[in-house]
Amino acid sequence: MQATLRVLRNLENEGVLQRFAIGGAIAATFYCEPLATFDLDVFVILPVTESGLISLAGLYAALRQRGYEEEGDCVVIEGIPVQFLPAYNALVEEALREAREQPFGEVSTRVLRAEHLLAIALQTGRPKDRERVRMLLEQAEIERPLLMEIVRRHGLEARWTAWTS
Known about the structure:
Helices cover 46% and strands 21% of the residues.
């Protein structure tokens, strides 16, 4: 995965994407026991087109130019299926801004904070997200005041109460 992360960092340095951070199950492994997953979820902020739209087209073209091919909703980069998730709301934009630099082998990468992973899982609301919330609460070092502020700021109090009571 180090080679994959180097490619992503190069894309960021070239301006193909403005910022990225690892999210999803792989990000959770930085804080708790690994969860089953087949891809690397990468949240991204992309340059806005002249028409004001956000598009993955430039990113995918840059990856094809480097010899990486699409497979379903992923692009296989150095053998790792990567799913690119554009920042789709205020919570994810905040999570990207506040992502932490983390070492991964010999490379450094950004990973969403555990508190934001929890909030995104609450917001998404799938059964596997509920399990991720449980695991993170049990195993990760969570800054509870920060988590509760994120939950409040993004209107997730009802889901928090329902899932943690």
